[in-house]
Predict the structure of Enolase.
Amino acid sequence: TIAALDALEILDSRGRPTVEARLTLSDGRAVSASVPSGASTGRHEAVERRDGDLSRYRGRGTRGAVAAIDGEIAAALIGREPRQREVDAALRALDGTPDKSRLGANAILAVSLATARAAALVAGEPLWRHLAAGAEVTLPRPMVNIVSGGLHAGRQLDFQDFLVIPLAASSFSAALETVVAVHAATGELLAERGLSTLKADEGGYGPALPDHRAALRLLDDAVRRAGLEPGEQVAYGLDVAATHFFDAATGSYRLASEQRTLDAAELAGYVEQLAAEHPIVSIEDPLAEDDWPAWAELTARLGGRMQVIGDDLFTTDLQRLERGIAERSANAVLVKMNQIGTISETADVVAHAKAAGFTTVVSARSGETEDDALADLAVGLAGGQIKVGSVTQSERLAKYNRLLRIERDLGEQARLAPLPETLRSA
Ligand code: PGA
Ligand code: ZN
């Protein structure tokens, strides 16, 4: 039984306040969980509660969300069993808004996640096994940020992420090793070329490159320097994050780094061209978050050859995902717990996506804490792929290292998720 719930304002990897919840069981054992925060957020995400008091943390304080947990939420949950669906339903009902803005999605997710940990503790299981609920588990294939642009790197490049996807590795640890080799080689190349090796928000490099092709050529060079062949052992993913350079007034996409303005079809053509020159097998948010018809056109054009992921498009929201499935707007969904605010709703999105033949990529946010539950979620829901940012910075490594431990604990049973059809085109 839940005996107590309280919360704390802590800091995330950008030094901004976030929420940690602590749940104490009637036997005295306690668990904690903290929540991340995005920068390139989608308009349709659940709303995190910020104090708006400009005298603290530039208005980003989370004392209101903390007070909601200490007060209303604790009062509603104390005495209940830590059963996920019941607790999540109670949280939604108590909040009463469609976007979880009253209590705050940050307060709600912290409690939902603490409930998952408490339930696993009561069951005497690791979190991943508890989340799997008897279903088969897999280790996720990592999709790792090497070069950053967009809102995470001072808009150095318009596209937000240039990622490396290991294709040939047969275990999670081998996949991670491959990516780390490419990351290290990239740093060496940048240093040799007199370019900055400073890190962007997610730990990726944010060098002053002239354009997107230069970033892709840098990846090609780094992969070869690591002794690998682009398109063989590794392929690339892009997170275009197009919402964030879309001009709603003109319905066009402004590529500042290339001093060009494109319409949706031209942007799709541009991506197609880049994919002809480099082994790009995955593309996220290639179009703006509400440009549904253009998404369907792009997916019809490119979806047979690559993974087309909706992040800002779907915001881990079941209704938006269902529309995307019906209209074939994409063939994959990015899964971020804090976009929707509860574990059970997150699990429902993964289940629906898989049933429709969509691939799923469980994802961290650009602002993260040292909480490692994302790793358990990716394994327990057999998410297939995981996107955590780069392979530096402890808020990222908490997740990778947790996956290494889970892989060890699974022993003979550890299986890397199979390579989906959409990633095979390289
Ligand atoms: P965000 O970025 O956490 O800043 O939204 C991650 C992403 O766009 O995938
Ligand atoms: Zn994204």
Q: What stands out?
A: Residues 51 and 64 are 6 Å apart (CA to CA). The first strand starts at residue 2 and ends at 11. The pocket of 2-phosphoglycolic acid (ligand 1) is lined by residues 38-41, 160, 239, 241, 311, 363, 365-366 (CB under 6 Å).
